[in-house]
Amino acid sequence: MSGTRVVDSELPIVAAPMAGGPSTVALATAVHAAGGFPFLAAGYKSAEALADEVQQARGIGGAFGVNLFVPGSMPVDEEAFRAYAAELEPEAARLGVELDPRPVTNDDDEWAAKVAFLTAEPVPVVSLTFGLPAARDISALRRAGSRVLATVTTAAEARAAVEAGVDGLVVQAPAAGGHSGTFDPHRAIRTVDPADLVREVRAAVALPIVAGGGVTDTRTVGELLQAGAEAVAVGTLLLRTDESGASQTHKDALADPAFTQTVITHAFTGRPARGLRNGFIDRHEATAPFGYPAIHHLTRPMRQAAARRGDAERLHLWAGTGFRAAGAVVGPAGEVVRELARGL
């Protein structure tokens, strides 16, 4: 790719940032070595831990990006929160953990400290998820030398990102695994073909696009590039690779025929995310309140315990609609990247 593009890599394949463990420096190194563009995931990490990862990633010998969670006001109804905490107590007891009935509402994921670090020690690309921050933060990152990408899920969000002054867009289709980048967590997320969504955004704005969601093979990569993307982001397909930091429970579930579909749920974190449908979702989706990060913090000790115990029925198993292809992945991430770009 030429230097005029928002991501500089030999192949038009981007390793999507996957917070909570899957995105590792080893994964970034492998993706870069295969010709792709890697991202580190800053979400849920301290600014100090991010700095350490960035320092390690500078040794891969090429460009990489860092993804930030944009803090926002998403209050949780305290009465609904207490009722949900009580509802989850039997689940927690089975896992040997206790739940904190007090909602955590003041967690901004160390936004200011992370922005301060990235402006002092800039990386080639910074992507933003969960909305748009203050324009001054975008400007500061750009002045430091980073290209700034905003994750958007609709053409309207893309137009808002243009007004905020970003350099490019990550267009995330509903088929993508993990949290939706929607600016409005309460809106119904309609089904839309990933290539059609890219065309909608391309018709609305002129910024460069990295497209993601539902990527399973070279054909789907080609469709997104043909629709107007300059590169294609892949996440779920990398979860079972050797370099992924996903829990073994998560990796095994992706290949388990007992899991037959993905659904969008807010039961685990209070924000919509796509994952394998399991018992926890079936039992609690209807009663779970919205409210991020309060619900995320409530269920986090349960999810951590479930991962340790191999309890896939109580774990957030983030996965896109193409998870069947991920279940067949065995081996290094570089092979996935090269196979996706074969024949392009």
TrEMBL record:
<keyword id="KW-0560">Oxidoreductase</keyword>
<dbReference type="InterPro" id="IPR013785">
    <property type="entry name" value="Aldolase_TIM"/>
</dbReference>
<protein>
    <recommendedName>
        <fullName>Propionate 3-nitronate monooxygenase</fullName>
    </recommendedName>
</protein>
<dbReference type="InterPro" id="IPR004136">
    <property type="entry name" value="NMO"/>
</dbReference>
<keyword id="KW-0503">Monooxygenase</keyword>
<keyword id="KW-0288">FMN</keyword>
<comment type="similarity">
    <text>Belongs to the nitronate monooxygenase family. NMO class I subfamily.</text>
</comment>
<keyword id="KW-0285">Flavoprotein</keyword>
<dbReference type="InterPro" id="IPR001295">
    <property type="entry name" value="Dihydroorotate_DH_CS"/>
</dbReference>
<dbReference type="GO" id="GO:0004497">
    <property type="term" value="F:monooxygenase activity"/>
</dbReference>
<dbReference type="Pfam" id="PF03060">
    <property type="entry name" value="NMO"/>
</dbReference>
<keyword id="KW-0216">Detoxification</keyword>
